[in-house]
Amino acid sequence: MTEHEAQVHGHCDPRFAAVRTAFEANFRERGELGAAVAVTVGGETVVDLWGGWADAARSRSWERDTLVNVWSTSKGPTALCAHILADRGLIDLDAPVATYWPEFAAAGKEQILVRHLLSHRAGLSGLREPHSLQQLCDWELTTQRLAAMEPWWAPGTRSGYHAFTYGFLVGEVVRRVSGLLPGAFLEREVTGPLGIDFAIGLPEKDSGRVAELVQPPVATTSEQAAIFSQLAPAALAALTNPAVGAPDANSPEWRAAEIPAANGHGTARA
């Protein structure tokens, strides 16, 4: 192999050899920089592969324990926090959110149910007033603005992707009930006891093993404008208020913040 050819490491059960073949093809044919994939079947890990580089300069190999920002996959562990509390009888999914978060009842939101938050049906897909990345990293400010805003649509009547707001909405209910932000709750109840290498945000102790995200090719300005012109205001707010790309997610501010819908960091195995 040449200096910059990717090497794939790990284990793959012979029954799933096609997974390894496809994974290797990503590097060889599709310009993959670095990645990992893990698959479990019936509690058995049948695929655990990693390879390539953890930075754009290709100076650091992707290792078995390399962490990566998993973007919206973070929503699953965040929802799990709420479901654990529901399983313990501490949250009623059919109760109004304001039962646990009284300020949330403002602007006609008194009838929004906890299950509406979990299913992207709350009508709060994005904030109405301009919200910067710096402000998104401020938990108190973001949750206060969500509590005060009017929904984009009648809650419960339809779904709309809550790209960033999902984590603050569900997470604030978790915080009001448990006293812990979702990251701390998840560590105490799930990842800590089970030894799962995943966290919301990036602990400072792990900063040396995190992969650098690289922005994929983007559409031209005119193509972007054409796409955004077709979006409803609620969808536009969800995706662009604020707009966050790979350089932002590599920043110390993003990694240190609690953004439970988008800044979970972990390994594929985790």
Question: What's the Cα radius of gyration?
Answer: 20 Å
Helix tally? 11
Beta percentage is 5-15%
Class per helix and strand makeup: alpha+beta
Q: How widely separated are the two ends? A: 30 Å
Tally of domains? 2
CATH class of the largest domain: Alpha Beta
Shape: globular
What is the string of helix and strand elements?
A: EHEEEHHHHHHEHHHHE
- Write down the overall mean pLDDT: 94
Segments where pLDDT lies below 50 for 5+ residues? none
Q: Biggest sheet: strands side by side, in what order?
A: 1-3-2
Count of individual beta strands: 6
Provide a descriptive summary of the structure in words.
The strands form two sheets. Strands 1-3-2 form a three-stranded antiparallel sheet, covered by helices on one side. A hairpin with a 2-residue loop joins strand 2 and strand 3. It has eleven helices and six strands. The chain is of the alpha+beta class and 270 residues long. Helix 2 (75-87) crosses helix 7 (182-194) and helix 5 crosses helix 6 (165-178). It is globular and about 55 Å long. The protein folds into two domains: 8-64, no CATH class; 73-197 and 219-263, DD-peptidase/beta-lactamase superfamily (Beta-lactamase). It has helices at residues 17-29, 75-87, 114-118, 133-136, 139-148, 165-178, 182-194, 221-229, 233-240, 246-249, 252-256; strands at 8-12, 34-41, 44-52, 68-69, 198-200, 264-266. It starts with 7 loop residues before the first strand and ends with a strand.
